[in-house]
Design goal:
CATH class: Alpha Beta
CATH architecture: 3-Layer(aba) Sandwich
CATH superfamily: Response regulator
Shape: globular
Largest sheet: 7 strands, mixed
Number of helices: 7
Order of helices and strands: HEHEHEEEHEHEHEEH
Structural class: alpha/beta
Helix content: 40-55%
Number of strands: 9
CATH topology: Rossmann fold
Length: 159
């Protein structure tokens, strides 16, 4: 199910806000994330999806500034969507949200093309700095903070 939230809220000043697409297969978490984004002054949720095909359609139609992506999706994985985006040479920044620990998945996710990795176990206070860092062109790993992409210390940060 792809939902275009702009149709529901046409009065939102989209020119000043950064557009976020949420790709998450758990409805409760997705709805709470969408609600949290709606409370952020500089962000708006431009849509949500729960599968890779829905996300692909939403990326094309909604043209988000940022994609928040769960690794575990119905019938596929977040890695499948990352591969599709990278195959299109997409410049769309992606932050992966996952239940798995950073030590297990942060490096593979960044190598696959994501710009950030945030554990679902972190407080919401860490999500906004992660979003801002990635939108500013940096990489971000929860518990480690922001760093420039391709920096030498990236390996040290993830080890």
């Amino acid at each position: 199910m792809v939902l275009n939230l702009e149709i529901m809220n046409p009065a939102s000043p989209s020119s000043k806000k950064r557009r976020v697409l949420v790709v998450e297969n758990h409805q409760f978490f997705r709805e709470n994330l969408v609600n949290w984004i709606g409370r952020q002054e500089q962000l708006e949720c431009c849509g949500e999806a729960e599968t890779v095909p829905e996300a692909q359609s939403a990326v094309d139609t909604q043209q988000p500034d940022l994609l928040l992506l769960d690794l575990s999706l119905s019938k596929s994985t977040g890695f499948d969507l990352l591969r599709w985006l990278m195959g299109r040479q997409s410049k769309l920044p992606v932050i992966v949200l996952s239940q798995y620990e950073e030590a297990q998945y942060a490096a593979p996710v960044l190598e696959a093309g994501a710009r950030g990795y945030v554990s679902k176990g972190v407080a919401t206070e860490e999500l906004l700095p992660a979003i801002n860092a990635v939108l500013d062109g940096h990489c971000y790993v929860s518990g480690r903070g922001a760093f420039p992409p391709g920096a030498e210390e990236t390996v040290e940060i993830l080890e």
